Structures are given as C-alpha cells and as structure tokens.
Amino acid sequence: MTSDMVIDRDQLRRKYREERDKRLKVEHRADYVRLEGELSDRYDQDPWVSESAARDPVVREVEAIVAGGGFAGLLAGASMRKAGFAADDICVIERGGDFGGTWYWNRYPGISCDTESYVYLPLLEETGYIPTEKYAKGAEIFEHCQRIGRHFGLYDQALFETRVVAVRWDEDQSRWIARTDRGDEIRGRYLWMCGGATNSPKLPGVPGITDFAGHSFHSMRWDYDYTGGRADGRLTKLKDKRVGLIGTGASAIQCVPPLGEWSRHFTVFQRTPSSVNVRANRPTDPEWAKQLQPGWQIRRMENFLSIVTGIPQDEDLVDDAWTWNFRNVMRVYEQDKRRKPTKDVQELADFERMNQIRDRVDDIVTDKETAEGLKAWYGLLCKRPTFHDEYLQTFNRPNVSLVHTNGRGIERITERGIVANGREYELDCIVYATGFDSSSGMLKTMGVNPEGVEGIALTDRFAQGFSTLHGLHVSQFPNMFIIGGPQSTLATTFTYGLHVQAEQCARIMAHCRDEGITRMEVKPQAEQDWQTVISDSLTDHNQYFQDCTPGYYNREGETAPIWNFFFGGGPIAYRDAVETWFDERLAQDIQFG
Predict the structure, then answer these.
(1) Structure pTM?
(2) Is residue 270 part of a domain?
(3) Is there a single domain that holds both residue 486 and residue 569?
(4) Which of 132, 175, 261, 360 has the most Cβ atoms closer than 10 angstroms to its Cβ?
(5) Range(s) of the domain holding residue 215
(6) CA 113 to CA 395: how far, in whole Å?
(7) Under 8 Å between Cβ of 154 and 136
(8) Which stretches does DSSP call E strand in 130-288?
C-alpha cells in the first residue's frame, strides 16, 4: 500500500478525528488517583519483601549520594566507579529491597522488554553478559540489575527499603545532607537525583475504588499469593475466578495472555486500544555472540537510535518492528519522490503502517466486533507502539471478553465489580494495569524536595522558571546532578540517554577531583543558552500530537507534547553536544569554588 489510490487520506483523517474527539468530550478522561493514605496501604506496598529488616540508623560521609537504585542509579554508580571513585564512597538509597527500579517493582506475568535486549540492557560489555533472548524477560533483566550492582561494588554502601525524605545543601561544608525515613543521615559532596517516574502506580479516577468486596491489586505490585504462579505464568489459583483487567497499555499487553489462559473468565476493560505489532522473539544465537567485537553494544545502540530518529544507515543491526516503522518513511519517499514535503511522506508512511497493524487484527481475531474494538485509529507515534505475538490471539479464547468503552473508560467500581457502558460486570478480582504516575514528576514520586543555596526548594526554584543545563545541572543547586529529567534527551532505548548523562556527570566529578575543586555550580546564563539550543532543535510536531487521541504523549490532549520539553536533536546529537560542551565550555559555564 504505497499510493493515494489505496490509502484514502481524507477518510483516515476523518476517522482519526472522530476517535480523538469522542475521547476529548469525556469529562474525566485524564483523572487518575495518586496512591496516598488508605490507597497507598492497599495498592503501593512492596510485595517482594516479606518483612522489613530492622537496622540501626546510619550516619555516614561519602563522596556521592545516589537517590534511586534503578537503571539511572546503577549507571550513576557504574560511571563513577569507571571514573576511579571507590565503591565505599558511593551510597545508593533505594525504596525497594534491591536494585532494579522498574524491574524490581514490575514482576507481572509475561513481563519483558519491548526494545531489543542487546541495546536496552546497559553495561553488557562491562559485565561480560549476553542476554538469552532478543527481548529478555523481566526476571533476567532484574538479575542483570543485580549483576551491575555486584560488578561495580554498589551493594557495599547501599541502603535498601529506605526513602530519602529530606536533603539540603550545607554551604559551609560544601556537602549535601540527606535524611531518610529510617533515621539515617548521609553526608555527601555530590547528590545524584536518579528517581524514575515508573515506580509509583496510579489508579483510575472513578468512584468506588475502595468499595470492591473482591480482591484487587495493581500490575506493578502483582499478588502471586492470590493468582498462583510466577512471572513465567501458571496462574493456577485463578481457575475458578472471574478476573477483570483495566487498561490496554504496554503492561496490559504482556499480562493479558497469561490471565486469559488461566482465569475461569477474563474480561479486559478498554478505553483506547494499543497498536500491537509483531514481536518475533527468539533465543540469542551463540555463534553471533561469539563474533561480537569490543564496542559492539554502543555501535548497535547508535545504529538503532539513528534509524528510529530518521538517520539512514547502511545496515539495520536490530532489524525489528521498531526499525521497520521508521525505515518505512524512507521507503515511501524513495518509491515516489513527488512527495517532497517531509510531513507528506511521513503521513503516508504512517497511514500505511497503521493500516498494516489494523489488518493484522483482522487476520488474527476471529470475532468481527472484538476485532473492530482492538483496532487503533490514530497515528503510529500517538502512543507507545507495542509488540506481542500472543496478545491478540488471547481474544479468540472462549473465556475471554473485551469490553470496549469507545473512549469513555469505565464508569465506576462497585462492591460486586465494574460498571462500563451502563452494565455491571461481576468479578472476583480486579487487576489495575493503569500505568505509573509519570505526570507528577520525579520529586513527587520520590517524595523529596532538595533544598539548595540559602534553603531554596527545588520546586520553588523551578517555579521561578524551569531552566537547566543539559537537564543535568540547576543553578543554586551546587554539586547536584539530575538524571533522566526534562531538557535532557528522550530515546526509544531510554537507558542510552541515562548512560550518556551518567558518563557526563562522572566526567565532571573526576575533573573536580583532579583539580582539587570542592564546589561547582552552573551559571544562569549557561541554562539560558541551553534553553535556546533546545528551542532551536525542536521539530514542530504539535499538529501531529494535537490530532492524536488523548494520552501520555500529548498530555491527554490538553498541552504541548512531552517532546517539547526535551532536546530535539536526538540522543546521539545530545551525546555529541554534552561531550563538546565539556571540552569547550566547561570553564565558561560552571562556577568552580
């Protein structure tokens, strides 16, 4: 399908607008509930620690405090270790019972990475590990997080099952002082803010959340005591249960097949379907692994990221549905060079690819009404694309039902179940696959608000004007690094951006160590200069995302897309920018003391 004779653009535009508009009219479309108080006690407890280990409060002085033990915190620690800092000088403070972040908390059945594991899992060469599959499963990824922690000695000083509740800058001592919910006081020359936005569950903002008399839990806090089994399936305790799942995003796509396989009856409640393409997972070829040469992972990462950001490559090393989505734009252009405007080519390629994904639904799902409900009527990048080889097939099971709410979402929770489309569905168990609280920001999800020079809170500093240098440094907050925040870079393989940022910050720390510098703070003018770079780098995708159905990427259809808050040149250009800055502008943009 490569011509306007096959693809009716006007018809598809109308269909997309209809699907968007019906969702925009829903009064409470973007309402979610943060887990506080009773809801936190019920849905946000750590299911992986049976009993918190008692310990005395710790008083310690280190070189670096790392708040967060997911991939951002692990990469921070690893980068410092590679830069020559001792393991004893790095204290990682993590709410969970181990390293892992997202992969510690999320252990639902069927979980795996949705980008290739050889480019997603960081530090493979450094740790000497090759994933067993093209898309590694969650347990293997969690084990790799632990491997990184062991390899770089990060367990030595780590404080698990611990939250940072307050952290302030001591100007006289040029130290950050962190206090925790377990009475610890950790003093460090540097503070790394590495809390992710994917560790706090959220619930739908509908009435009756606490009314349900059956069992319920969030997919991020899976209850295997109730379902039986483990992440590889065999949910044997559900054989006599009527289970309902709310949500059809990336988490739901993966846990739907095992729930459909083991439940007596399984009902999926859907607001908007995801686009679901082929995953084609397969074991790692040992002969391929034997032939890998030093530097292979960064080359593979950057080859993948180049393709998905529109930079042609002589070879597609990953060659999966992700890269095909973006190579397709160039293929359409090459087939008909009359289509000169870039947006014209992108629209045609987008329509073509989404038609193929919708055709796949018809090819797999036997019930026509169910198939229609599972078709995604929006642009390819309106929501995170998903990939699975069993999700659509699950809806052919006689014990599986789809309740398509046509964009309205569920209406309420009752004592007996869920009300949707004016009907009550009686259930024994509700699984909330409603995602994580990414909109509240790092500080809210971490529960800490650093206080910088003269006691200014970071939230107050940002309220005066959100400005950073590279997304890493904030004026009035000396010796502090933020990893994974706005004004840095977004990458399909998120860990690449974290790697680049962590390496940059460790490089700056090493420079300060070697030069005998105890205090460094970015100048406001450098932040303004970076804001100009960000503005100049942005491609105008506003109309594309305004045409999308409401969702996370376009902030529920109400504000600018999230891309506008990040460097727009792509992750590889971001890496070049920060490395060039270090070589050419470090002394100009940083006040050393």
Answers:
(1) 0.94
(2) yes
(3) yes
(4) 175
(5) 9-30+202-279+344-432
(6) 22
(7) no
(8) 164-170, 175-180, 185-193, 202-204, 215-218, 242-246, 265-270, 276-277
